[in-house]
């Protein structure tokens, strides 16, 4: 994507009512106006809140919102030029249960209050296979502790990935925490025990992976299961 295109999207994001872009300083000082008040300030309802972390173009966030109109969805990514597409689609299709947030995932504690979130989706995150990159894996111990803090006691985490490495790594981390996954599926299109939300939604990248013959894995879990 050219720099002119990125700039155009950044500017357009500023005009979207469903895009929020707090400064890092605003978050670090716990001055974020939406923290603990997302339902009333953003969605104006009391429906459950679901996050997609590292949402990219926002395809999964938008399609989840279409499937579940009685839930609120927030797609989070640090690259606003990416989720511009999802934000624009949500506006064009008049989806009022979708927001996009430009922020770093390690700052979630500053964005959401304890127990404010009902579900978290991790869809095709970078597996960060190299050992020195393990601190960036979205299911490492640090990130899992953040998710546990912002999730309700009944909250659930979903991981959908083409990386058998990340699937296995996550299972190992859950075992360390004495957590048994609810579902652990190593090939969702062969072993059909995954939720509809997992089977019915395919992003552009997922279709590419499938065309390459890759298996798509899925697991979900609760911290208090």
Largest sheet: 8 strands, mixed
- Shape annotation: globular
Order of strands in the sheet with most strands: 1-4-3-2-5-6-8-7
Number of separate strands: 8
Radius of gyration equals: 17 Å
Average residue pLDDT:
94
What's the oligomerization state? single chain
Q: Would you tell me which CATH topology applies?
A: Rossmann fold
What is the SS-derived class?
A: alpha/beta
Bin the helical content.
25-40%
Give the class-level CATH name: Alpha Beta
**Which range does the strand content fall in?**
15-25%
The residue ranges in which pLDDT falls below 50 over 5 or more consecutive positions are none
CATH superfamily: Vaccinia Virus protein VP39
What's the number of domains?
1
Distance between the termini: 43 Å
- H-E order: HEHHEHEHEHEHEHEHHE
Count of helical stretches? 10
CATH architecture: 3-Layer(aba) Sandwich
How does this structure look, described?
This protein is α/β, with parallel strands linked by helices. The chain is built from ten helices and eight strands. It has an eight-stranded mixed beta sheet with strand order 1-4-3-2-5-6-8-7. The longest helix has 13 residues, at 3-15. The radius of gyration is 17 Å and the shape is globular. The termini are far apart.
Summarize the structure in short.
This protein has 225 residues and is an alpha/beta fold. It has helices at 3-15, 24-28, 38-43, 59-67, 80-92, 108-111, 141-150, 164-176, 196-200, 204-211, and strands at 19-20, 49-53, 72-77, 98-102, 117-123, 151-161, 183-185, 217-221. The chain is built from ten helices and eight strands.
């Amino acid at each position: 994507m050219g720099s002119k295109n990125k700039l155009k999207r950044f500017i357009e994001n500023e005009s979207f009512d469903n895009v929020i872009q707090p400064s890092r300083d605003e978050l670090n000082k716990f001055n974020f106006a939406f923290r603990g008040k997302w339902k009333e300030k953003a969605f104006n309802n009391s429906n459950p809140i679901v996050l997609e972390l590292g949402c990219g173009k926002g395809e999964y966030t938008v399609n989840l919102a279409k499937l579940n109109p009685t839930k609120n969805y927030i797609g989070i990514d640090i690259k606003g030029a990416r989720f511009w597409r999802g934000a624009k689609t949500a506006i064009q299709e008049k989806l009022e249960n979708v927001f996009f947030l430009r922020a770093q995932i390690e700052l979630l504690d500053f964005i959401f209050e304890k127990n404010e979130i009902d579900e978290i989706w991790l869809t095709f995150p970078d597996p960060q296979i190299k050992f020195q990159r393990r601190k960036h894996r979205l299911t490492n111990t640090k990130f899992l502790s953040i998710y546990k803090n912002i999730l309700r006691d009944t909250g659930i985490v979903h991981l959908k990935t083409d990386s058998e490495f990340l699937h296995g790594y996550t299972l190992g981390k859950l075992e360390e925490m004495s957590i048994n996954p609810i579902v652990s599926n190593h090939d969702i299109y062969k072993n059909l025990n995954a939720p509809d939300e997992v089977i019915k939604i395919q992003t552009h990248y997922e279709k590419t992976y499938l065309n390459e013959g890759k298996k798509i894995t899925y697991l979900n879990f609760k911290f208090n299961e």
